[in-house]
Amino acid sequence: MSVIHPDDIQETPKPKRRPEWLKVRAPGGETYEWLQGLMRSKSLNTVCEEAMCPNLGECWGKGTATFLMMGDTCTRSCGFCDIKTGRPDAMDWQEPLRVAEAVRAMNLQHVVITSVNRDERPDGGAPIFAMVIRRIRQVHPGCSIEVLIPDFKGNPDALQIVMDAQPEILNHNVETVPRLFKKVQPQDNYEWAMTTLRNAKRMDPLVLTKSGIMVGLGETFDEVVEVMADLAEQRVDILTLGQYLQPSKRHLPIDRYYEPTEFMELKKIGLEMGFKWVESGPLVRSSYHAAQQVRELSQLNYVRPIAGAVEE
Protein backbone atom coordinates (compact mmCIF):
# COMPACT_ATOMS: atom_id res chain seq x y z
CA MET A 1 0.00 0.00 0.00
CA SER A 2 1.40 3.37 -0.99
CA VAL A 3 1.92 6.05 1.62
CA ILE A 4 0.84 9.63 0.95
CA HIS A 5 3.31 12.18 2.23
CA PRO A 6 1.67 15.20 3.96
CA ASP A 7 3.46 17.56 1.56
CA ASP A 8 1.71 15.88 -1.40
CA ILE A 9 -1.77 16.72 -0.11
CA GLN A 10 -3.18 19.75 -1.90
CA GLU A 11 -5.66 21.71 0.13
CA THR A 12 -8.80 23.08 -1.49
CA PRO A 13 -8.38 26.87 -1.83
CA LYS A 14 -10.34 28.68 0.85
CA PRO A 15 -12.84 31.26 -0.35
CA LYS A 16 -11.67 34.83 -0.06
CA ARG A 17 -12.95 36.48 3.10
CA ARG A 18 -15.24 39.42 2.38
CA PRO A 19 -13.67 42.69 3.57
CA GLU A 20 -15.39 44.81 6.20
CA TRP A 21 -16.25 47.51 3.67
CA LEU A 22 -18.52 45.03 1.84
CA LYS A 23 -20.75 44.24 4.80
CA VAL A 24 -24.41 45.28 4.33
CA ARG A 25 -27.45 45.27 6.59
CA ALA A 26 -30.12 42.62 6.15
CA PRO A 27 -33.38 43.74 4.50
CA GLY A 28 -36.24 44.63 6.80
CA GLY A 29 -38.54 47.34 8.16
CA GLU A 30 -42.04 48.58 7.43
CA THR A 31 -41.19 50.27 4.12
CA TYR A 32 -39.38 47.18 2.90
CA GLU A 33 -42.34 44.93 3.77
CA TRP A 34 -44.85 47.33 2.17
CA LEU A 35 -42.80 47.50 -1.04
CA GLN A 36 -42.45 43.71 -1.16
CA GLY A 37 -46.21 43.37 -0.79
CA LEU A 38 -46.83 45.94 -3.54
CA MET A 39 -44.61 44.04 -5.99
CA ARG A 40 -46.35 40.75 -5.22
CA SER A 41 -49.84 42.23 -5.52
CA LYS A 42 -49.09 43.49 -9.03
CA SER A 43 -47.15 40.37 -10.12
CA LEU A 44 -44.00 42.42 -10.71
CA ASN A 45 -40.33 41.47 -10.56
CA THR A 46 -37.39 43.56 -9.36
CA VAL A 47 -33.77 43.16 -10.35
CA CYS A 48 -33.01 43.91 -6.70
CA GLU A 49 -34.31 40.45 -5.77
CA GLU A 50 -33.60 38.46 -8.93
CA ALA A 51 -29.95 39.58 -9.11
CA MET A 52 -29.42 39.43 -5.32
CA CYS A 53 -28.31 43.07 -5.12
CA PRO A 54 -26.33 43.82 -1.93
CA ASN A 55 -28.07 47.20 -1.60
CA LEU A 56 -31.59 45.73 -1.48
CA GLY A 57 -32.02 46.50 2.22
CA GLU A 58 -30.87 50.11 1.89
CA CYS A 59 -32.83 50.92 -1.27
CA TRP A 60 -36.08 49.17 -0.35
CA GLY A 61 -35.90 50.74 3.10
CA LYS A 62 -36.00 54.12 1.34
CA GLY A 63 -38.89 53.07 -0.90
CA THR A 64 -36.89 52.76 -4.14
CA ALA A 65 -36.55 49.77 -6.45
CA THR A 66 -35.48 48.81 -9.97
CA PHE A 67 -38.27 47.11 -11.90
CA LEU A 68 -37.41 44.01 -13.94
CA MET A 69 -39.69 43.63 -16.95
CA MET A 70 -40.49 40.87 -19.46
CA GLY A 71 -40.45 38.07 -16.91
CA ASP A 72 -37.85 36.49 -14.64
CA THR A 73 -36.17 34.23 -17.23
CA CYS A 74 -33.32 35.45 -19.45
CA THR A 75 -32.27 34.06 -22.81
CA ARG A 76 -28.60 34.65 -21.96
CA SER A 77 -26.38 32.96 -19.38
CA CYS A 78 -23.91 35.51 -18.03
CA GLY A 79 -21.46 34.09 -15.52
CA PHE A 80 -22.04 36.84 -12.94
CA CYS A 81 -25.84 37.01 -12.90
CA ASP A 82 -28.27 35.08 -10.71
CA ILE A 83 -31.30 35.60 -12.94
CA LYS A 84 -32.37 32.20 -14.28
CA THR A 85 -31.70 31.26 -17.88
CA GLY A 86 -34.14 29.50 -20.19
CA ARG A 87 -37.06 29.99 -22.55
CA PRO A 88 -39.15 32.94 -21.32
CA ASP A 89 -42.92 33.00 -21.06
CA ALA A 90 -45.02 34.94 -23.56
CA MET A 91 -44.79 38.73 -23.34
CA ASP A 92 -47.20 40.37 -20.91
CA TRP A 93 -48.42 43.51 -22.65
CA GLN A 94 -50.29 44.69 -19.53
CA GLU A 95 -47.08 44.76 -17.49
CA PRO A 96 -46.18 48.39 -18.39
CA LEU A 97 -49.44 49.64 -16.86
CA ARG A 98 -48.89 47.65 -13.65
CA VAL A 99 -45.37 49.06 -13.36
CA ALA A 100 -46.69 52.59 -13.90
CA GLU A 101 -49.33 52.07 -11.21
CA ALA A 102 -46.65 50.84 -8.79
CA VAL A 103 -44.52 53.91 -9.57
CA ARG A 104 -47.51 56.11 -8.75
CA ALA A 105 -48.25 54.17 -5.54
CA MET A 106 -44.64 54.67 -4.44
CA ASN A 107 -44.82 58.37 -5.46
CA LEU A 108 -41.40 58.07 -7.11
CA GLN A 109 -39.60 61.09 -8.48
CA HIS A 110 -37.20 58.86 -10.42
CA VAL A 111 -37.66 55.28 -11.57
CA VAL A 112 -35.28 52.71 -13.07
CA ILE A 113 -36.66 50.11 -15.48
CA THR A 114 -34.66 47.14 -16.74
CA SER A 115 -35.41 43.74 -18.25
CA VAL A 116 -34.14 40.29 -18.99
CA ASN A 117 -32.79 39.63 -22.49
CA ARG A 118 -35.46 38.47 -24.93
CA ASP A 119 -33.32 37.29 -27.83
CA GLU A 120 -36.16 35.12 -29.18
CA ARG A 121 -37.73 38.37 -30.43
CA PRO A 122 -36.18 40.34 -33.34
CA ASP A 123 -36.91 43.59 -31.45
CA GLY A 124 -35.55 42.24 -28.14
CA GLY A 125 -38.66 43.50 -26.35
CA ALA A 126 -37.95 47.16 -27.14
CA PRO A 127 -41.68 48.02 -27.47
CA ILE A 128 -42.20 47.11 -23.80
CA PHE A 129 -39.66 49.76 -22.78
CA ALA A 130 -41.39 52.37 -24.94
CA MET A 131 -44.78 51.40 -23.52
CA VAL A 132 -43.70 51.64 -19.87
CA ILE A 133 -42.08 55.05 -20.42
CA ARG A 134 -45.30 56.41 -21.92
CA ARG A 135 -47.52 54.75 -19.30
CA ILE A 136 -45.52 56.24 -16.42
CA ARG A 137 -45.78 59.69 -17.98
CA GLN A 138 -49.56 59.22 -18.27
CA VAL A 139 -50.28 58.11 -14.71
CA HIS A 140 -47.41 59.77 -12.80
CA PRO A 141 -46.19 62.89 -14.64
CA GLY A 142 -43.09 64.58 -13.28
CA CYS A 143 -41.22 61.34 -12.62
CA SER A 144 -37.88 61.06 -14.44
CA ILE A 145 -37.31 57.71 -16.14
CA GLU A 146 -34.13 55.68 -16.51
CA VAL A 147 -34.09 52.56 -18.67
CA LEU A 148 -31.34 49.97 -18.32
CA ILE A 149 -31.66 48.17 -21.65
CA PRO A 150 -30.17 45.06 -23.28
CA ASP A 151 -27.95 45.57 -26.31
CA PHE A 152 -30.66 44.27 -28.72
CA LYS A 153 -27.73 42.60 -30.52
CA GLY A 154 -26.76 46.01 -31.83
CA ASN A 155 -30.07 46.38 -33.70
CA PRO A 156 -30.55 50.13 -34.34
CA ASP A 157 -34.24 49.74 -35.21
CA ALA A 158 -34.98 48.21 -31.79
CA LEU A 159 -33.01 50.95 -30.06
CA GLN A 160 -34.88 53.62 -32.03
CA ILE A 161 -38.18 52.35 -30.59
CA VAL A 162 -36.87 53.07 -27.08
CA MET A 163 -35.28 56.40 -27.96
CA ASP A 164 -38.48 57.68 -29.59
CA ALA A 165 -40.12 57.47 -26.14
CA GLN A 166 -37.43 59.88 -24.82
CA PRO A 167 -36.29 58.47 -21.47
CA GLU A 168 -34.26 60.91 -19.40
CA ILE A 169 -31.45 58.34 -18.98
CA LEU A 170 -30.49 55.50 -21.34
CA ASN A 171 -28.33 52.96 -19.53
CA HIS A 172 -26.50 49.96 -20.95
CA ASN A 173 -23.78 48.30 -18.91
CA VAL A 174 -20.59 47.15 -20.62
CA GLU A 175 -19.90 45.07 -17.45
CA THR A 176 -16.29 44.00 -18.09
CA VAL A 177 -13.18 44.42 -20.25
CA PRO A 178 -12.94 43.07 -23.84
CA ARG A 179 -10.47 40.30 -22.90
CA LEU A 180 -12.98 38.76 -20.47
CA PHE A 181 -16.17 39.36 -22.44
CA LYS A 182 -16.75 35.82 -23.70
CA LYS A 183 -15.96 34.38 -20.28
CA VAL A 184 -18.18 36.78 -18.35
CA GLN A 185 -21.08 37.21 -20.80
CA PRO A 186 -20.65 34.64 -23.59
CA GLN A 187 -23.65 35.69 -25.71
CA ASP A 188 -22.78 39.39 -25.57
CA ASN A 189 -20.45 41.46 -27.72
CA TYR A 190 -18.27 44.41 -26.70
CA GLU A 191 -18.95 46.22 -29.96
CA TRP A 192 -22.72 45.79 -29.51
CA ALA A 193 -22.42 47.60 -26.18
CA MET A 194 -20.41 50.48 -27.62
CA THR A 195 -22.70 50.73 -30.64
CA THR A 196 -25.78 50.90 -28.41
CA LEU A 197 -24.36 53.79 -26.39
CA ARG A 198 -23.04 55.60 -29.47
CA ASN A 199 -26.33 55.27 -31.36
CA ALA A 200 -28.38 56.42 -28.36
CA LYS A 201 -26.58 59.77 -28.38
CA ARG A 202 -26.93 60.04 -32.15
CA MET A 203 -30.69 59.32 -32.01
CA ASP A 204 -31.36 61.68 -29.10
CA PRO A 205 -28.57 64.18 -28.31
CA LEU A 206 -30.44 65.34 -25.17
CA VAL A 207 -30.55 61.93 -23.49
CA LEU A 208 -28.14 61.20 -20.66
CA THR A 209 -26.29 57.97 -21.39
CA LYS A 210 -24.93 55.74 -18.67
CA SER A 211 -22.85 52.57 -18.38
CA GLY A 212 -21.26 50.43 -15.69
CA ILE A 213 -18.28 48.16 -15.08
CA MET A 214 -17.82 45.37 -12.53
CA VAL A 215 -14.30 44.86 -11.18
CA GLY A 216 -12.74 41.83 -9.56
CA LEU A 217 -13.28 39.30 -12.36
CA GLY A 218 -9.64 39.04 -13.41
CA GLU A 219 -9.15 42.28 -15.31
CA THR A 220 -6.24 44.62 -14.66
CA PHE A 221 -6.59 48.18 -13.38
CA ASP A 222 -5.25 49.48 -16.69
CA GLU A 223 -7.84 47.46 -18.63
CA VAL A 224 -10.61 49.11 -16.61
CA VAL A 225 -9.19 52.53 -17.47
CA GLU A 226 -9.08 51.57 -21.15
CA VAL A 227 -12.79 50.66 -21.11
CA MET A 228 -13.54 53.92 -19.34
CA ALA A 229 -11.74 55.74 -22.16
CA ASP A 230 -13.82 53.85 -24.75
CA LEU A 231 -17.02 54.88 -22.95
CA ALA A 232 -15.87 58.50 -22.74
CA GLU A 233 -15.25 58.38 -26.49
CA GLN A 234 -18.92 57.41 -26.97
CA ARG A 235 -19.85 60.53 -24.93
CA VAL A 236 -21.30 58.52 -22.05
CA ASP A 237 -22.40 60.91 -19.29
CA ILE A 238 -22.67 58.72 -16.17
CA LEU A 239 -20.34 55.89 -15.15
CA THR A 240 -20.81 53.35 -12.35
CA LEU A 241 -17.98 51.18 -10.99
CA GLY A 242 -18.54 48.45 -8.41
CA GLN A 243 -17.08 45.26 -6.98
CA TYR A 244 -18.25 41.94 -8.42
CA LEU A 245 -19.74 39.67 -5.76
CA GLN A 246 -20.23 35.96 -6.51
CA PRO A 247 -23.97 35.11 -6.13
CA SER A 248 -23.26 31.38 -5.66
CA LYS A 249 -20.55 28.76 -6.12
CA ARG A 250 -21.76 28.02 -9.65
CA HIS A 251 -21.02 31.58 -10.73
CA LEU A 252 -17.68 33.06 -11.73
CA PRO A 253 -15.23 33.28 -8.81
CA ILE A 254 -13.98 36.57 -7.42
CA ASP A 255 -10.44 37.19 -8.61
CA ARG A 256 -9.77 39.91 -6.04
CA TYR A 257 -11.39 42.64 -3.96
CA TYR A 258 -10.53 46.20 -4.96
CA GLU A 259 -9.57 48.54 -2.14
CA PRO A 260 -11.73 51.63 -1.47
CA THR A 261 -8.71 53.75 -2.43
CA GLU A 262 -8.70 52.13 -5.88
CA PHE A 263 -12.34 53.06 -6.39
CA MET A 264 -11.47 56.62 -5.40
CA GLU A 265 -8.66 56.64 -7.96
CA LEU A 266 -10.96 55.32 -10.69
CA LYS A 267 -13.49 58.04 -9.88
CA LYS A 268 -10.78 60.70 -10.17
CA ILE A 269 -9.66 59.31 -13.52
CA GLY A 270 -13.24 59.15 -14.78
CA LEU A 271 -14.00 62.76 -13.90
CA GLU A 272 -10.78 63.83 -15.60
CA MET A 273 -11.94 61.97 -18.73
CA GLY A 274 -15.05 64.14 -18.83
CA PHE A 275 -17.83 61.99 -17.36
CA LYS A 276 -20.49 64.22 -15.80
CA TRP A 277 -20.93 61.78 -12.90
CA VAL A 278 -18.88 58.84 -11.62
CA GLU A 279 -20.40 56.59 -8.95
CA SER A 280 -17.48 54.43 -7.78
CA GLY A 281 -17.33 52.17 -4.74
CA PRO A 282 -17.36 48.55 -3.56
CA LEU A 283 -21.15 48.29 -3.27
CA VAL A 284 -22.05 50.46 -6.27
CA ARG A 285 -24.52 48.91 -8.70
CA SER A 286 -26.04 50.33 -11.85
CA SER A 287 -29.04 52.04 -10.23
CA TYR A 288 -27.36 52.89 -6.93
CA HIS A 289 -28.06 56.56 -6.05
CA ALA A 290 -29.74 56.97 -9.46
CA ALA A 291 -32.29 59.46 -8.12
CA GLN A 292 -29.53 61.60 -6.63
CA GLN A 293 -27.68 61.60 -9.95
CA VAL A 294 -30.71 62.94 -11.79
CA ARG A 295 -31.48 65.59 -9.16
CA GLU A 296 -27.98 67.01 -9.10
CA LEU A 297 -27.43 66.83 -12.87
CA SER A 298 -30.79 68.55 -13.46
CA GLN A 299 -29.62 71.44 -11.29
CA LEU A 300 -26.71 71.78 -13.73
CA ASN A 301 -29.17 71.73 -16.67
CA TYR A 302 -27.81 68.43 -17.99
CA VAL A 303 -31.24 66.74 -17.89
CA ARG A 304 -33.98 67.55 -20.39
CA PRO A 305 -37.12 69.16 -18.88
CA ILE A 306 -39.10 66.34 -17.28
CA ALA A 307 -42.64 66.02 -18.63
CA GLY A 308 -45.14 67.11 -15.99
CA ALA A 309 -42.56 68.26 -13.46
CA VAL A 310 -43.49 71.25 -11.32
CA GLU A 311 -40.92 74.03 -11.50
CA GLU A 312 -39.61 75.19 -8.13
Tell me what you see in this structure:
The protein has 312 residues and is of the alpha/beta class. It has one domain: TIM Barrel (Alpha-Beta Barrel). It is 36% helix and 13% strand. It is built from 11 helices and 10 strands. The strands form 2 sheets. The protein has an 8-stranded mixed β-sheet, sandwiched between helices. A two-stranded parallel ribbon has the order 3-4. Strand 8 (208-215), helix 9 (221-233) and strand 9 (238-243) form a beta-alpha-beta unit. The radius of gyration is 20 Å and the shape is globular.
Any key phrases for this structure?
TIM Barrel
User: Helices and strands, in N-to-C order?
Assistant: HEHHEEEHEHEHEHHEHEHEH
Number of DSSP helical runs: 11
Q: Give the CATH class.
A: Alpha Beta
Number-wise, the strands total 10
> What do we call the CATH homologous superfamily?
Aldolase class I
**CATH fold-level label:** TIM Barrel
Radius of gyration computed on alpha carbons? 20 Å
Q: What are the segments in which pLDDT stays under 50 over at least 5 consecutive residues? A: 9-15, 47-51
Helix content: 25-40%
Number of domains: 1
Strand content: 5-15%
- The geometry reads as globular
How do the strands of the widest beta sheet line up side by side? 1-2-5-6-7-8-9-10
Major β-sheet annotation: 8 strands, mixed
The mean pLDDT is: 84
Structural class designation: alpha/beta
